[in-house]
Amino acid sequence: MAAIVKPGDVVPGFEAFDQLATMVAIVRPDGRCLLANSALENVIGLSRRALQRSNAFEWLADAAPLGEHARRVAANLVATSRFDAHLRRHAQHGQGELPVHVILSQIDLGGPGGAGGPGGTRGDAVLLEMIEIEQQTRQDREERVQELVTAHKELVRNLAHEIRNPLGGIRGAAQLLELEIEGRELKEYTRVIVHEADRLQALVDRLLAPHRRAPVVGDVNIHEVCERVRALVLAEFPRGLTVRRDYDISIPEFRGDREQLIQAVLNIVHNAAQALVGRIAAGDARIELRTRVARQVTVGRQRFRLALELHIQDNGPGVPDTVRDRIFQPLVSGREGGSGLGLTLAQTFVQQHQGIIECESAPGRTVFKIVIPLP
Ligand SMILES: Nc1ncnc2c1ncn2[C@@H]1O[C@H](COP(=O)(O)OP(=O)(O)O)[C@@H](O)[C@H]1O
Ligand SMILES: [Mg+2]
Question: Residue 320's pLDDT band (boundaries 50, 70, 90)?
């Protein structure tokens, strides 16, 4: 088939490339473009026709490395080759160059005789993939966060179990002791033991809570979740706090655990309200709940065609620098009396919906973004 593909022709069987978020092209070793997918078209800012009439060497700020790598791949000196480069974008997409990671691989376009046959010869085309470097780092970071959260969860769960078992014994022994001893002063000591054991028990219960109850799956409407949370938080802070809503009501229902999601959103909104105490007193505290549909979303390693995004934004002082990188870890708290479990639990619940929570924070504008894939 390679022999009959001319630049600009649609190459049959490669339509799926248009579903990819990474930029993909098939080029000749001399740079002539046989095919460009829609991601590439969008990022460069040229129509597909124009792209397919152009030469890949013109796409990059420095063409020399591409030429050299393409030649080596086409000559089968290496099967794949990677390098970093700068992609030239056209004016309407914002001036300038976009840092990309380039991957070149051999591709066999097939043909009547198969590889090496008269139609397609190995070496007459290479597959060119480009990933925005920023996107790549974001994905790596998300993956690391998820791995860390999983590791922490495991640690906390084991620890909680270890603490819980002897706790019952300590409490029971203190109660027996209380029956045996005389005098109010001494009894006060046993009461302290019982009280502190109960406090520890409550903490352990909260640590184990996400693992306790099996998820109850049903149809969830994200706006019902938001409205419940809004009502709860306004009941707690009836004055000085405005909770704005900006909903995209076209978001479809999805399968999930409604109570878990209410808890997750509530924990985030609650944190926002707590960070806003100063403004609540002044009467200009604002939280906004904003929903949107997002397309072609990557969460961790998985890709989803559609997802919902719920942004929870507040105009508080921002997440303290000291805890910013660790807020999703258990027992990390930036405030007096905090347990540091709220966001860990929220992240666990959202992950159970194949989603993720991310945070962007600056003084006056903190946004927690919940992403949940839609069917
Ligand atoms: N909207 C917010 N504004 C400022 N800081 C926040 C916000 N949300 C969370 N934080 C910070 O993240 C920390 C961790 O939150 P969380 O896991 O809920 O634990 P806790 O609320 O018990 O401290 C909080 O203590 C706070 O310092
Ligand atoms: Mg909290």
Answer: very high
Find the DSSP H helices in the chain.
38-44, 48-53, 64-74, 133-180, 184-212, 222-236, 258-275, 277-282, 342-351
Tell me how long the chain is: 375
Q: Are residues 88 and 172 in the same domain?
A: no
The span from the first CA to the last CA of the chain, in angstroms, equals: 37
Cα 71 vs. chain centroid, distance in angstroms? 37
- Which phi and psi angles does 78 have, rounded to 5°? -140, 150
Q: Is 369 found in the same domain as 228?
A: yes
Q: How many domains does the chain have?
A: 3
CA 233 / ligand 2 centre spacing (Å): 13
pTM of the model: 0.62
Q: Is the CB of 340 under 6 A from ligand 1?
A: yes
Question: Are 104 and 150 found together in one domain?
Answer: no
Q: Which residue range is the domain that position 232 belongs to?
A: 218-373
Name residue 170's amino acid. Answer: I
Residue type present at position 231: A
Which ligand 1 atom is at minimum distance from the Cα of 343?
A: 17
